[in-house]
Write a structure and sequence with these properties.
Helix content is about 65%, strand content about 5%. The chain is mainly α.
Length: about 325
């Protein structure tokens, strides 16, 4: 029987970031249904959460059994289970909040299952261990949009339908302040946000100059609540984005560039598809680095083996046999 080894959860800093994300999106959903005008049925957030929790716990239990270790949610009581479920909680509520599938709750369940399950399938080696590279909630939304053409993202008025005046400004301001605090102090993804925003503005201007797109209309998207949510709470996912500043800028800028290309091609829902495409490119890049490193290690091992064999042959060829003054054989090298 394989030895049971307790797997480690996230670092304290990442756990705190996930906790704050989970609290923020929970509060936003409660306020959204109570005051803002969320249009999905009231029961659907609970359905999404139940689905996400079930898939996450089920796949973790299966993986723990196969790998001969203890489940990551075991050993720390209720706190351990809660901390383990933070990612599934965030993904499930984000899926329900951002996608609109009419009255087809099974499509929502399918999307949440894909979003959470993809973390166990679409993985790439990072720092010596396999990690998922597709942004979970974004991937689930993209899959729904591709497989069910009648589905759509939540309408723009979804977040401010029942508000007027200064409250319309207060909601995005709270999102920006909260997201900036989390990303600045915990996730360290401010470079990514900068690369994303600057390049998004540039691609809007470029589309206007080259393709006669209305530049004010293209830039106006940046003022929407959905865009602000995406910028502060989705694209900055620490589990599926780079850590180094330069890589963060390239990642955010890459999403903006791909979005601009999709818009020129008149492909709808470009912001979600662009994120999925860039995440896929990053995953392939990580696998590419892994295979190159493996090939180099094998090459170096082969060279070392050949060098050792060559050294051994050289010593054998230089060995001579002679006789001393007494007529006894003497081996000289």
């Amino acid at each position: 029987m394989a030895e049971t080894v307790k797997a480690q959860l996230h670092s304290p800093k990442v756990t705190m970031a996930l906790r704050n994300f989970a609290i923020s999106i929970t509060v936003f959903n409660i306020v959204g249904y109570a005051l803002l005008g969320f249009e999905q049925p009231y029961l659907w957030p609970l359905v999404a959460l139940l689905t996400g929790y079930t898939v996450e716990i089920g796949l973790e239990s299966l993986a723990a059994r196969v790998e001969g270790r203890g489940p990551r949610f075991a050993g720390n009581g209720v706190r351990g289970v809660v901390e383990f479920l933070y990612p599934a909680h965030i993904t499930s509520l984000a899926m329900n909040m951002l996608i609109y599938v009419n009255d087809q709750v099974w499509v929502l369940i399918f999307g949440v299952t894909v979003a959470v399950g993809a973390k166990w399938i679409l993985r790439a080696p990072v720092r010596g261990r396999l990690r998922h590279y597709m942004n979970p909630s974004n991937f689930g939304i993209a899959v729904i949009l591709l497989l069910f053409p009648w589905a759509s993202i939540a309408p723009p008025y979804h977040f401010t339908e029942h508000t007027t005046g200064w409250v319309d400004w207060l909601i995005p301001a709270i999102i920006v302040i909260g997201g900036t605090m989390i990303n600045g102090k915990l996730t360290g993804r401010m470079w990514l946000i900068m690369g994303w925003l600057v390049t998004f503005a540039l691609q809007a201007v470029v589309r206007g100059v080259l393709f006669d797109t209305s530049i004010p209309a293209a830039l106006a998207m940046m003022t929407g609540t959905a865009f602000i949510l995406f910028t502060n709470y989705m694209v900055t996912d620490p589990g599926t984005s780079p850590s180094k500043p330069a890589a963060q800028v390239m990642f955010g800028a890459g999403i903006a560039v791909v979005y601009g290309v999709l818009m020129v091609a008149h492909i709808a829902y470009g912001i979600f598809l662009a994120t999925a495409i860039v995440c896929l490119i990053r995953g392939l890049f990580l696998w590419g680095i892994h295979f190159v490193n493996e090939a180099r290690v094998q090459h170096e091992a082969q060279q070392a083996t050949l060098a050792a064999a060559h050294t051994g042959n050289g010593e054998h060829n230089n060995t001579t046999v002679a006789r001393d003054a007494g007529g006894k054989k003497v081996v000289r090298t």
